[in-house]
Amino acid sequence: MNKKLVALAVAGALSSPLVAVAADPAREHTFTGNLTLASEYIYRGIGQTNRKPALQGGFDYAHRSGLYAGIWGSNISWLSDLGGISSSIELDVYGGYKGTFANDFGYDVGVLTYNYPGAFPGGFTDADTTEVYVGLGWKWLSAKYSYTVSSHIFGWVGAGGEKTRGSDYLELNAAYDLGDGWGINAHLGHQKIKRLSDASYTDWKLGVTKDVGFGTVGLAYVGTDAKGDPGQPYRNPFGKDLGKERLLLTFGKTF
Length: 255
Prior knowledge:
By secondary structure, the protein is mainly β. It has a single domain, classed as Beta Barrel (Porin). The chain is built from 1 helix and 14 strands; from the N terminus they run αββββββββββββββ. The strands form 2 sheets. A 12-stranded antiparallel β-barrel has the order 1-4-5-6-7-8-9-10-11-12-13-14. A hairpin with a 3-residue loop joins strand 6 (89-101) and strand 7 (105-115).
């Protein structure tokens, strides 16, 4: 199995939780944890666990100055599904700085590393990836741009075997509080894979959340225009279209 097949199966395994907690202005240091149970691990519209449940969680630290750092992890299967690879966990480490200006505006800049511990056969491109990002928000609307600075993005290689450094992701997000514990959210993003246009795609999500007191339940409709036909990117070894429209059910708790 060559390294390009890994690239196709990776299918945008950009699992950034980036739920970095905002610092409590009344405290110099703020620590939080988060735990999520999901019907599937979907990131940027692409399935990461072959339609199977995911257990995810992490810890965040925020300083009153605006500096923050965190770690987050989830089970995955897009690597082990290929055979010969033992990696079944994704571990993300990130840090940055966020602040506010002009009343309701906010900004966020940082770096995120995606790590996949495990044994890989020779000839495979390293799936570990590093991105830098910048975000801008206004009340319940936000935009974010992520740029790959590592040599490759999640094992993808160019059409001629080139590095895929410079791949990027632009996203628009909305999260509106309806009151009484209810909320709605929407997302639109575009993933560009440098030097491999067939793997670039657009994804979207529409969802609703409900705070039930001991946690938050979420239901979302997720989809993409990724090429998931047989023989195309985003088709896993079991013949499943990783970017097909489907429902995602989650339960999350922050503590």
